[in-house]
Structure formats: C-alpha cells, structure tokens
Write a structure and sequence with these properties.
The protein is mostly beta strands. Helix content is 0%, strand content 52%.
C-alpha cells in the first residue's frame, strides 16, 4: 500500500496458465481478472455477470498492469486506488477492517474466463494501512533500532513506534534485564503486523499476558529490509499483575532487542538497556508582567510538577486557595536552591512541620529572573497545613 494509504498494489499468482481473478466484498460485484498469453498481458476491471464478468466502462487502474507466466503459474500485478471514486462499479476497500475476498483461477488453463471451469475460494481478508505516525518524539535509538512515541490527547498514554532493521523487535518497560520484564514484541507475519503485550523470559520467547493492553496495531515491512511496528498503550493500564506503570517526566529503564529472522529468537539478537523519560507538555497557567507559572500533571492525576518564574533575583512564592494559607516559597543563591512548604503567618510564612514536596526541587537564576520547579501531590494527606488541589 502507498505511504499515504491511497493506492494498493496487488500481486496475484495462481497455479494455472489460464485466467485468474479477485472479487472484492461479501457479494462480489467488483472483480479484477487477468491472463497472460506470451507477451500480451490482459487485466480488466469488471463487475459480476452471468455466467461471466462484464468489463466496467471505466478501467480504474493506476498505470499499466503487468504479468508473467512461469513453471505453470500465472502472475498479474495491478495498482488500484482504495477508493476509485467509481461508486457504480467499484467497492471502496476498507483499511484495517476484515472483508470478504474471493479468488478464482482457471482449472483447464484457458485464458477465457469461465466460472464453470474454475477453482474458487472465499477468505476473510484485511488490507493493513501504512503506519504513518507523524509528530513522534524519539525515546531511544541505536544502530538498527529506534523507539519513539506520540502522546495521546490527554497525555495518559501514547502511540509507540518501533523501527528495526531486523524482522522482529521488542521493547521492555521498567527494567534493565529481560527476565520478568513487561515487554512489547512484534513482527510481520504473512504481511500482517503482530504486536503482543507480554512478559519477557530471559532469552526465551516472551509469555503473552492474560490481558493484552495494546490497541490499534499497525506495521509494515520496509523496502530494503526491516520493519515498523506501531501500537497504542496507556501509561497506566490498570493491569498491576503484568504491566509496568510508565511514569511521565521521570526517568525509567527500558530494555530493547531485535533479530534478523522471523519469529522471536532471543539467542540470536541484538539487545541492550537504557534510561529514558517521557515528557508531557506543560500547561501555561499564568503569564503576567514577567511572572510565569506552568505545570504538568502525572498520568494518574496524583502529582503536579510546578514551574514558577519571576522577574527577580530574590524569593518567589505560590499561595493556594481563597485565604492563601497553603504556601510554597523559594529562592536561589548560587548553587543553593531553597524551596519550602509553609502556611501563611504574620508577617511572613511559617514552615510546615512536614515538608510535603516530592523529590528534590530545582531552580536557577539568569538575566534577573528566578525559576523554581517542585513536585507536590494533589492531595498530600496533610489536612492540617495543605490544601487538596482540585482538578478541572
């Protein structure tokens, strides 16, 4: 299929030196048939008739079909739009959706179509769209392997893209070893992408999770070799038994692997580990007279990272709520960053007994501006001193 998912190149081979055909749909009225006679290749766009197909008035092929005969087999190749625009004669071929496809070929090696002398089979068929995911952010890259992601609209999950020069690839979350690691692995089988939610077992084939938390599987084989695998996965799937809860705006470990033969052969692969992070965009909450406030919120809505910038080389602060009794203040002096959890006092804030700040705050001074960054729980559990930050 063309990279923009508009055109499909079909190659059909049958064990006959006569005609062959494809019929699209449940009640196949949209037919392509063809034959090869010496150097003459005949491929026609048609509709069902009685007893044999009737050529369409408009032949909706892109370019000129080709074909050949060899060793008792006939092959034809043609290109057609997924949607030809011919609503009278042609089916709009659905992408990533199963539809009925009937293939037929001559049982007596005749080039003249004759359904009374034909082998015919109807199958469930799917045309896989090209995984054209734009706007991705690189997570990790090494020779022969790249993993990228694209955040979903509310930054609670992502579309993940793995590109490999091998024929299978895996990406494991939250560990530096293969054993017991939450892992995505996949390959292209018979032209179709297979990406599974699994748990790694060292150098053995990973074990499928009871619940597969991947959706929107896509993939393709690259011209010249290699594969692209695409799947959607939430950062926090709710599967605490098998899945790693992927943090955002925080470093975490991954393992990666890929191999050169179809199927997962962990004894014959390239592999490694890395520390990576996924950055969610900050929400700009305030920008006024040189004072700027932005925040990012963890995928599970429990923690907020606050970034405060003010046009001063002195102290800065935030006070939460109508009465402003819950206060965060901070300053930067050389390499020393001081950020305190406090409550309002007279005349100045009083530090809380419990400092409910997650991790170590950071800060800097530059160009007459001070910036501090700190992380605090939406609900710190400190009902005496801290406000529960309401969401939405």
């Amino acid at each position: 299929i063309k990279s923009d998912n508009t055109e499909i190149t079909w190659m059909v081979t049958a064990p006959t030196t006569g005609w062959l055909s494809l019929a699209f749909g449940e009640n196949p009225s949209d037919i392509v048939y063809g034959s090869v006679n010496g150097s003459t290749v005949t491929v026609m766009d048609a509709k069902s008739g009685s007893p044999n197909p009737v050529d369409d008035t408009t032949q909706n092929f892109v370019g000129t079909p080709t074909g050949s005969e060899s060793g008792g087999n006939t092959t034809i190749t043609f290109v057609r739009m997924a949607n030809t625009g011919d609503s009278t004669d042609d089916m709009v071929l659905p992408l990533d959706t199963v539809f009925k496809l009937t293939y037929m070929y001559s049982s007596n090696n005749s080039d003249t179509v004759d359904y009374n002398n034909a082998n015919s089979t109807t199958v469930n068929f799917k045309v896989h769209s090209n995984p054209n995911v734009t706007g991705t952010t690189q997570l990790f890259s090494t020779t022969g392997y790249t993993a990228s992601y694209k955040l979903n609209d509310d930054a609670t999950g992502a579309t993940w893209v793995i590109t490999s020069t091998g024929k299978w690839a895996g990406l494991g979350f939250g560990a530096q070893i293969m054993t017991g690691t939450d892992m995505a692995y996949g390959t292209i089988t018979d032209g179709a992408p297979v990406v599974k939610d699994t748990k790694a077992s060292g150098r053995q084939v990973p074990t499928d999770d009871t619940v597969d938390n991947f959706t929107n599987i896509m993939g393709t084989t690259l011209t010249g070799g290699g594969i692209v695998l695409v799947f959607d996965r939430m950062f926090e799937t709710g599967d605490t038994t098998d899945d790693y809860m992927i943090p955002v705006n925080t470093a975490f470990d991954i393992v990666w692997a890929f191999g050169d033969t179809f199927g997962v052969e962990h004894n014959n692969s390239s592999r490694g580990t890395s520390s990576v992070s996924i950055t969610t965009p900050a929400v700009s909450a305030v920008s006024q007279n040189g004072f700027m406030l932005s925040y990012t919120i963890k995928a599970d809505n429990t923690e907020i990272t606050w970034k405060v910038t003010a046009p001063t080389t002195g102290w800065v602060s935030l006070a939460f709520g109508d009465t402003g009794s819950d206060v965060i203040y901070g300053s930067v002096s050389g390499s020393t960053v001081t950020v305190k959890d406090a409550k309002s006092g007279s005349p100045n804030p009083v530090d809380d007994t419990t400092q409910n700040i997650v991790g170590t705050p950071t800060g800097s001074e530059s160009g007459g501006t001070t910036m501090i960054t700190f992380v605090r729980m939406v609900d710190t559990g400190d009902s005496t001193d801290d406000m529960v930050i309401p969401l939405n």
